[in-house]
Amino acid sequence: MQILPFYLLCDESGSMIGEPIDAINGALPDLHHEISTNPTVADKTRFCLIGFSDTATVLQPLVDLSDIDSVPALAAGGLTSYGDAFRTLLRCVEADVAVLKAEGHEVYRPVVFFLSDGIPTDPDWDQAYKEVTQSRFCPKIIAFGIGEAQESTIARVANFRAFMQKDSSVSPAQALREFASSLTRSIVRSAGSIGEDGGNGFTLAVDDTVPGFSLVSLDKL
């Protein structure tokens, strides 16, 4: 079977406390329901949730969402640090792909939805990021920035698509609800498209426009 692994790498820094983290936690059950009740998507998709602030924690190991009752909630606290998040991501991807292949699956290039609302406090996070993007798995990274996140940093993180919260008139909670909706749509559409070209690949269906966000050009990197 062809499997598409999705990872949600989400900032849990202290500035997420309140409406921002509530918005994501409120949307995760919808994502769980959308995927777990859609046999076509559930069969072809595996989902992993990693929260990070000073350190990173695997809140939900890679799983078929139809196999669990709920998705764990994020809990904000600490400073914004990227290095441990990318190191944890790489360890997860390496282990997950090995298990999936051992089970006889064909594994597509993993996809990461990265979400941050702050500025990284660890200046050496670039090395951990390079280890992810230069690995043989090199996941496709779609990065979303809200709040105090810097456009230049979000653009550096993304290697497929980058989005920034448009302006202060859109609250972080509103922006995050739109992000979560976009994430769900992308997973459902992408997983549903696997094998449509004769089993040789899939179409990564990520929205070009997300309400409350602006698309960031990656050409300037």
UniProtKB/TrEMBL annotation:
PROSITE patterns per UniProt: VWFA
Task: State one Pfam family annotation.
Answer: VWA
Q: Where is the VWFA domain?
A: 5-183
Task: List the residue ranges forming a coiled coil, or say none.
Answer: none
Spell out the protein name for this chain. Answer: VWFA domain-containing protein
* Species assigned in the record: Streptomyces populi
In the record, what lineage is assigned to the organism producing the protein?
A: Bacteria, Bacillati, Actinomycetota, Actinomycetes, Kitasatosporales
